[in-house]
Amino acid sequence: MKLATLLPLIITNNELHARWLNTLSLMENTGARKISACEDPLTVTYIILKHAAEEHRHAFYLKKQIEKTGAYACPTYEPGYLLAPAQSRYYLNQLDIEVCRYLKNELGLKGKDLRFAAYLLVTYAIEVRADGLYPVYQEALEHAGSKVNVKSIILEEEGHLEEMINELKSFSENWQLHAGKAVEFESRLFSDWVEALEKEVTLQ
Are 132 and 154 in contact (CB under 8 A)? Predict the structure, then answer.
């Protein structure tokens, strides 16, 4: 089942919708913490600080949107407040691992060079995904007449993708090859995540 088919099922069930928003918040927060973890204390750039701050804000914004579902508050990221909790936690961490392995094997990177390159490729792949996911979610929200909206996130994610392309062009003349591999890894992990969501949602 495609995510576009799952979303109406999630949105029309207030508890599922609250947990979906909390799951998205978890994933945004995980991304923000990963960006911060790759910062070099001396050479951290404006772009990295901006991305970390905006991803943290997205995590907070999605948490606030839970109130509009009329369901319980999902106070933490504990499994009972998430959808497909194991797969949701695994997804971004595994993408990071696979991209790092690729960069070590193909480019021989290590240390802070590896961390920075992984940040570029992982963030690019996630921004490509976000550029597809959030508009589909927003369309489903509008169709359902939901009070929840993610328009502000859509605008910022579009800007992030453009910034990451510029950063990747500076990183390597073969940036499209490397970025393509990151997207390939992400696509498989995303498919597994949607499958896990489907199993949980259709059991409700």
Answer: no
